[in-house]
Amino acid sequence: MIMKRLNIFKILLFIISPLLILSVALWHFQPEKPFNIYILDKTVPDVQRSHHKSFNWILNHENYTNKDHKHYSYKEDYYGFFPLNTTDKSRDYKIRSLRLFEILGITDDLDMLYYTDTYGVTYQDWYHRPVDKYHAPLIYGGLNQNDYLLLSEMRRKNKLIITEFNMLGSPTSDLIRNKTESLFDFKWTGWTGCYYHSLLRTNSNLPRWIVALYEQKYKKSWEFRGAGILFIKEQGEIVILEEKKHLDSSAPQIVTNNYGQKMYELPSIQNYQSMFDIITTGSTNKVVANYQIFPNSDGDTLLHKYQIPKIFPAIIEHLENYKFYYFAGDFADRNIIMTSSYCKGIASISKVFYWKESGSKTAFFWRFYVPLIHNILAKNLYSAETVINK
User: Fold this and answer.
1) Concatenated DSSP letters for 180-227?
2) In the list 198, 227, 312, 319, which could disulfide-bond 203, CB 3.0-4.6 Å?
3) What is the pLDDT of residues 322-350, one digit of tens each?
4) For the whole model, what pTM was predicted?
5) DSSP classification of residue 71
6) Which DSSP string do the residues of 268-331 spell out, in sequence order?
């Protein structure tokens, strides 16, 4: 039996090795796409840099390079929080940001920017301290005035802008939030949500401070157990919809309209199992896709009580006189293996493997995030003519 398995392994290796070599060779023959891209990630509590790593994977996979014709490094080529030393005894870091006088000059050279996460890093995250029940002191984070001015200048110069959750929520100040909302004609309702496969208090992914805040605010024990969706408002209100008790289907879905399916090659329905914020948008923006929640009658009553909608925007865009996208979710958060980006065709193959399984972060990356970013860059940034002119 062992010899039989060994022979099968050798046969598979014999078949796969030439295909892998061909895939890497085809990647090297791709045309280079040199563009200056500004990436901002303030939420980097460890060396994985998972909140922007998946975007760098796509840049590398499609041969986008910087002004020096080098591929973008997820470890170095971004602005925000930089882990320098992550040993238990020493936790060194640096912050890379633009100064006011640099903003006007840099926008002339930039082709696009992507704000992947501006929440930031807390003392508990970085120094591995016990979680405070009600307060997490911030080391660095929130959208600030210079971040806003960069957005404004890029908009004025019609440069490509991609932003996503959590750009408007805490710890961003009300002033900067309101100015950003006015600039791009959309508003955050104050509600943030997240799907959890288990609402048990022992689930390590469930923030301890939310459990503590719930029990302190509502004077009752946290008794939730199944899968469900947790909503929290900026003012501290907490609403939990639990599977079977409040929901016919526990996970939210992203429902993409016909325009989004055609324009960005997105699936019509994608289960979504991560964080999101609830926004509204003005008429100047186009909605590409919506979140949809599936409450039963009890869940419907709870949503109505707290004025939480069942359908709300997941992706909005504005392409008429400036190029702007907002993803109302943690779309870029995935700790993908970068070496796979050197394999031409892997995105198409992986998408086929996940054409039925649509719930995990891995499925979301291949089925939804990759085609979305690929088409945004291809339609708004890259063309054969621009590459030649570069």
Assistant:
1) HHHHHTEEEEEEEEEEES---TT-TTS-HHHHHHHHHHHSS-----SS
2) 198
3) 999 999 999 999 999 999 898 888 888 87
4) 0.91
5) B
6) SEEE--SEEEEEEE-TTSEEEEEEEEEE-HHHHHHHHHTT--SEEEEEEEE-SSS-EEEESB-T
